[in-house]
Amino acid sequence: MIVRDRSDKMSDFGFKLMVYMYWVVDLFYSSEKRIKSFGIKEGAAVLDYACGPGRYVRGFSEAVGEKGKVYAADIHELALSYVKKRIEKYNLRNAVPVLVKGYHCDIVDKSVDYICALDMLHQVGEPGKLFRELHRMMKKDGVLILDDGHQKRERTRAQINEANLWKIVEENKDHLKCAPK
Question: What pTM was estimated for this model as a whole?
């Protein structure tokens, strides 16, 4: 889930602890309602950037349907092993795991309709690099869905504005939606 330089990625133990904490949270909170609030359209290409253990991959897969595509991207190899297991378990033919190297994803320029970067921004060492990479992959009419993670909304807004690549088009207590400038 951490998207800093590879040398700063979360330890395997830390990652497994995070997976357990998510498992507990998911017992009480369904991601289905949250995903619906994103407004993802059938047939779209979605990038779940810093996907962690793939909590949203099934929901995104269902939202985009058979003609859509879901990229579950993370810097941590363990994350991708969890994602691969979910893909197999639920037979998600439209989902593919992607290893992030530094901030770089092997995803074609201007090919993604929605990028969901959830519960991760507080861990990013160089937000400018992150926002440039997300901008590179985003279609001109795409939507970046970003939540604050464990930082204040003011900090999130400041990071978005400093990058000067995105404009905030919608905001609620759960997330912000941004469009490429």
Answer: 0.87
More confident residue, 114 or 124: 114
Domain enclosing residue 148, as ranges: 6-180
User: Residue 147 and residue 150: Cα distance in Å, rounded?
Assistant: 9
Give just the sign of the alpha carbon dihedral 168, 102, 123, 47.
positive
Distance separating alpha carbons of residues 159 and 127, to the nearest angstrom: 7
What is the tens place of the pLDDT at every residue in 4-29?
343 457 777 876 676 567 676 666 77
What digits encode the pLDDT tens for the residues 77-99?
999 999 999 999 999 999 999 99
Say how many domains are in the chain.
Answer: 1
For 32-36, 138-142, 158-162, which range has the lowest pLDDT when averaged over its residues? 32-36
Residue from 88, 86, 106 nearest 98 by CA: 106
Query: From the centroid of its chain, how far is CA 165?
Result: 18
12: domain CATH number is: 3.40.50.150
Q: Where are the beta strands (DSSP E) in 50-156?
A: 69-74, 95-99, 112-117, 138-146
| CA 66 from centroid of its chain's CA atoms | 20
Strand (E) or helix (H) holding 162: helix 153-163
